[in-house]
Design goal:
By secondary structure, this protein is mainly alpha-helical. A two-stranded antiparallel ribbon has the order 1-2. It has a single domain, classed as Fumarate Reductase Cytochrome B subunit (Up-down Bundle). It contains 4 helices and 2 strands, in the order H-H-H-E-E-H. Helix 1 packs antiparallel against helix 2, helix 2 packs across helix 3 and helix 3 packs antiparallel against helix 4. 19% of the residues are buried.
């Protein structure tokens, strides 16, 4: 499996990581902001942007997973077994939520009968029937999964900063853009 260095992720993996991170933070922030807005052209515009971000996150997640499955990551620095287990569990849950959050949002939009047209160009199919009760359930699922993803992102960032500033083990440098 190709790698740039045995100590760093590939440039593609690094780019996908940071693009996905920015998209998730942006979509989450936009979701928090737009949810309490009164009905207006701004709210409609932000809902479309939020949906477009979600579809983009879904696509980036698929690319990232495909890349990860075909390119071995660098070895972890030495750490206690519980930390390695926690890291693997957190990464697995992050990947699960990378897909679950946008899919729940897409299903919610479908259940409301509101189509998603990615960037106003590509209409996406509805994959659940129009159903108001189902929409309410999916809305809650999307919201809870989003908060779960946000909590895992905070834990992930906290762990990376702990490794960088406390352990000083070079873990953060493996995924930092540029040369290490």
């Amino acid at each position: 499996m190709p790698m740039t260095s045995p100590h760093r992720y590939t440039p593609v993996a690094i780019a996908l990581h940071w693009l996905l991170a920015l998209a998730i933070v942006g979509a989450f922030g936009m979701g928090l902001y737009m949810a309490d807005l009164p009905f207006s052209p701004l709210r409609l515009k932000l809902y479309n942007w939020h949906k477009w971000a979600g579809v983009t996150i879904l696509a980036l997640s698929a690319l990232r997973l495909l890349w990860r499955l075909t390119h071995r990551p660098p070895a972890d620095p030495p750490m206690p077994a519980w930390q390695a287990s926690a890291a693997h569990l957190t990464h697995g849950l992050l990947y699960l939520l990378f897909f679950a959050v946008p899919l729940a949002g897409w299903a919610y939009s479908s259940a409301l009968g509101i189509p998603i047209v990615w960037f106003g160009v590509l209409p996406l199919p509805d994959f659940v029937p129009r159903d108001k009760e189902l929409a309410e359930t999916l809305k809650l699922l999307h919201k809870l999964a989003s908060y779960g993803l946000a909590a895992l992102v905070v834990a992930h960032v906290g762990a990376a900063l702990k490794h960088h500033f406390v352990d000083r083990d070079g873990l953060l440098a493996r995924m930092w853009p540029g040369r290490a």
